[in-house]
């Protein structure tokens, strides 16, 4: 299997990575990748996950946009293209690995099997990377929540000691100030712990006016 360049893209046609080991003209490959999964419709060799056009110069198309892309491919020196479907999981959907070569190439069953293997390996790596990114994000959110809880408890302790109030009243003051200022409870708590800020008593809502008991004359 002779491959001069490769472009990895996701289901939204965003280019995730590109490699141009020998075909330097492909450093300026457009995004989304040329033809990409639309290559399947014009493939002369395919498996369940791999579609190949052996020689782009022998392809005849009526679709203007695809013809234009073929012209771009020809201007870049591309003669053979293959597209490998990559299942990236439920959230990411399908991606693709598009392979390019400068020479027309008769892909054997061994080549197709190798392309499928590369695709499966790439898919597994991307899926693992996506899962790891989600896990890191979740850990970060949990850590932020824990840090917020710690500083709020510290602020409550400061107010209990300095203002001679109970813990519920201390938290009520933090919450009341946060609402009045349009900020988070954590930011008020940080001001209490780090800057000596002392929020005053909570503002209680005004009681409703009693209705008149006198009958109208």
What does this structure look like?
The chain is of the alpha+beta class. Helices cover 45% and strands 15% of the residues. It contains five helices and six strands; from the N terminus they run ββαββαββααα. It has a six-stranded antiparallel beta sheet with strand order 2-1-6-5-4-3. β3 and β4 form a beta hairpin. It is rod-shaped, with a radius of gyration of 32 Å. The chain starts with a strand and ends in a 22-residue tail after the last helix.
What's the quick description here?
The protein is of the alpha+beta class and 217 residues long. It is built from five helices and six strands.
Label this structure with key terms.
217 residues; rod-shaped; 6-stranded antiparallel β-sheet; alpha+beta; single chain; 15% strand
Low-confidence runs of at least 5 consecutive residues: none
Tell me the distance between the termini: 102 Å
* Helix and strand element order: EEHEEHEEHHH
Percentage of residues in helical conformation: 40-55%
Shape: rod-shaped
Query: Radius of gyration in whole Å, from Cα?
Result: 32 Å
Tell me the major beta sheet.
Answer: 6 strands, antiparallel
Strand order of the largest sheet: 2-1-6-5-4-3
The tally of strands reads 6
SSE topology sketch:
Blueprint: E1 5-9, E2 15-19, H1 39-42, E3 45-46, E4 50-53, H2 64-75, E5 80-87, E6 94-101, H3 109-163, H4 167-181, H5 185-195
Antiparallel strand pairs: 1-2, 1-6, 3-4, 4-5, 5-6
């Amino acid at each position: 299997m002779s491959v001069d360049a490769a472009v990895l893209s996701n289901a939204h046609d965003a280019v995730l990575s590109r490699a141009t080991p020998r075909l330097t003209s492909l450093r300026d490959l457009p995004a989304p990748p040329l033809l990409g999964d639309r290559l399947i419709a014009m493939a002369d060799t395919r498996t369940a996950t791999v579609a190949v056009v052996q020689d782009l110069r022998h392809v005849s198309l009526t679709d203007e946009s695809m013809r234009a892309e073929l012209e771009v491919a020809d201007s870049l020196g591309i003669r053979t293209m293959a597209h490998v479907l990559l299942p990236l999981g439920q959230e990411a959907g399908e991606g693709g690995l598009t392979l390019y070569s400068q020479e027309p190439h008769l892909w054997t069953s061994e080549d197709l099997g190798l392309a499928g293997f590369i695709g499966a390996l790439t898919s597994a790596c991307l899926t693992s990377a996506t899962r790891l990114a989600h896990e890191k994000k979740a850990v970060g959110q949990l850590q932020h929540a824990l840090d917020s809880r710690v500083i709020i408890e510290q602020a409550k302790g400061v107010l209990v000691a300095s203002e001679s109030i109970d813990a519920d009243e201390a938290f009520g003051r933090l919450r009341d100030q946060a609402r009045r200022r349009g900020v988070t409870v954590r930011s008020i708590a940080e001001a209490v712990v780090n800057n000596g800020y002392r929020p005053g008593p909570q503002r209680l809502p005004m009681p409703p006016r009693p209705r008149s008991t006198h009958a109208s004359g």
